[in-house]
Amino acid sequence: MNRRMRTGVLVLGGLGVAALLAVAFLQLPGFGGSWHPYGTRAVEAALGRHTANTVASVNFDQRAFDTLGEQAILFGSVLGTVVILRTTRDERRVEPEPARVPAPVRRYALAVLPVTLLTGLYVAAHGQLSPGGGFQGGVVAATALHLLYVAIDYRALKRVRSLTLFTVADAAGEAGYLLVGLGGLLAGAAFLENTLPYGTANTLSSGGIVPLLNAAIAVEVAAAVVVLLAQFLDQAIEIESADEGSGR
């Protein structure tokens, strides 16, 4: 295919997308109006399925398949980073040097660490009830682990950060989301359809599959952030090229 034909295909495709967008825009409700069909339906569906947090209902129930794609993007990004930043033949690892952390910083970081971890777990566990969820809770939980790096040094973080364990957890979180979706197929419904009992509203067991998907997301996000930061920290602290090593 020559350049002229490629340009023609691009223009034709662009015109088709523009036409579809124009039709969609013409059917949107007026800006600032009181009629919001999507919002009304989303709230009704959330209340009907006993999910107090409407945002969680949209993310993990009404459009759970879209959220699977978002989770897959993070999973693929971490996988790509691990492959690209792997140690090459002309690189070697060096033992990180001990860090000298001021006493007030050390005390504050160590005191905040358990609070941050509990906050992350709380945000993830209560995602169907209050603002938050697996994405936010997973990031907060991963941040708690890295407070060891701030409070002590990189060696302390490495002692509790098993990359093998967190890599498995990352894959398990991704697989867990898929397995919940397959449960809907086994129940004779659609993939990721909410088929579990909705439970009592405003309780941890409410929302059907929403708490399960929140938990899977929390595990995947927390593990993914740990693995991702591990690659960048290794490059900055431990890995050096052969030329750098010979010049020391």
In short:
By secondary structure, this protein is mainly alpha-helical. Helix content is 69%, strand content 2%. The model has no long low-confidence stretch (mean pLDDT 89).
Describe it for me?
This protein has 248 residues and is mainly α. The chain has one domain (15-241). It is built from 10 helices and 2 strands. The chain has helices at 3-26, 37-48, 54-62, 64-84, 103-125, 134-151, 154-160, 163-186, 210-237, 242-246; strands spanning 91-93, 239-241. It has a two-stranded antiparallel ribbon with strand order 1-2. The termini are far apart.
Give me some keywords for this one.
248 residues; 69% helix; two-stranded antiparallel ribbon; mainly alpha; 10 helices
**Terminal residue distance:** 53 Å
Q: State the helicity in percent bands.
A: 55-70%
Summed over residues and divided by their number, the pLDDT gives a mean of: 89
Compute the CA-based radius of gyration: 23 Å
Sequence of secondary-structure elements: HHHHEHHHHHEH
Shape label: globular
- How many individual helices? 10
**Strand segment tally:** 2
Major sheet: arrangement of strands = 1-2
SSE class:
mainly alpha
β-strand percent reads: under 5%
What oligomeric state is this? single chain
Residue windows where pLDDT falls under 50 for at least 5 positions: none
Main pleated-sheet profile: 2 strands, antiparallel
Tell me the number of structural domains.
Answer: 1
